[in-house]
Amino acid sequence: MSATLVETSSASQPGSLTLTHVGAYKEIAPTSFSEDDERKGTERAPPASYPHYLPVWDEKTKYEPLKPFEHVEHGKDADPTFQDLLKPGSKLADLTASIGAEITGVQLTSLDNAGKDQLALLVAHKKVVAFRDQDFAKLPIHKALDWGRYFGRLHIHPTSGAPAGYPEVHLVHRGIGDTSAQELFQTRTNSVAWHSDVTYENQPPGTTILYALDIPPSGGDTLFVNMAAAYRRLSPAFRERLHGLKAVHSAHEQAESALARGGIVRREPVSSIHPIVRTHPATGEKALFVNSQFTRYIVGYKKEESDALLKFLYDHIALSQDLQARVKWAPGTVVVWDNRVTAHSAILDWETGARRHIARITPQAEHPTE
Ligand SMILES: [Fe+2]
């Protein structure tokens, strides 16, 4: 995967060069869209289906640094027969042999707590699960947030736009006539940017929910990779080499990029140190936990050593198409993934100017441990 060397500051080693990535351009600052066109529609496109989910960038409200909290991992106590989740009439089909599933005949909003526990466990095993024909987007936003809060304290993204009054919703929005694809490909050859979400936090997200509001007729799929399988694919000797290593994950560059693009920083950027290999609390699986968007360097390594090892891991993840799945969106789709044991990438492949509007609820989980 291509990457550019640029000068960075903040959490990087002093005077160092850091690998940065195409992902930095994404949903961290106001994108160019017409509020009027989104609300009323145009000759080319209908109005936004969920106008109360259109993003606003609230410059005034600032948030205090996040405090540690005790995460309860619901997947741990879940019934592994999944009987409260996969009831008669539901259907689970694997997306690939190594990662991902698609489920029909389950309404997420109807799950009781036992069903939600099993959802957390199933997603930890499958890594990403697409639920079709959901009524989730039709819930009042506060009810959707209450539903997500079961899985952990809801994260407020430091730079993203959110629906007015609901900062815990992270929005991925491109309005009618959006030209980001054309702009990106003036200077880049592809839009793939593997990452796990907000890994710079001390307690990054676990079971995470993304739901479709408006989707282009084609394009805008999301790629996922199984980071536990990517770990297991390495030789025992190499895995051993990774054990005990820690890396710095930084939000500083994202904040700088947001400000440079006219965006906001509503909580001061942080950096955290996480193990390169982490263990999932419900499954006991070990998984790689580095990503080119937020991981900066390996603690205690010299720059060339750190860059070389991280580049190998990023290439390994990006090239492992046999450990990846491509999730296709449709109206009513809700995608639940485990951010601890996956990485993902958006695909910016439609140049039709069609609206793409997706919301994320981001429960935080435990501080990663090996
Ligand atoms: Fe993401």
TrEMBL record:
Keywords: Dioxygenase, Iron, Metal-binding, Oxidoreductase. InterPro entries: AtsK-like, TauD-like_sf, TauD/TfdA-like. PANTHER family: ALPHA-KETOGLUTARATE-DEPENDENT SULFONATE DIOXYGENASE (PTHR30468). Residues 93-362 form the TauD/TfdA-like domain. GO terms for cellular component: cytoplasm. GO terms for biological process: sulfur compound catabolic process. The keyword Metal-binding applies. Its cofactor is Fe(2+). Residues 29-49 are annotated as: Disordered. Gene3D superfamilies: Clavaminate synthase-like. Belongs to the TfdA dioxygenase family. This is TauD/TfdA-like domain-containing protein. It comes from Endocarpon pusillum (strain Z07020 / HMAS-L-300199). GO terms for molecular function: metal ion binding; sulfonate dioxygenase activity.
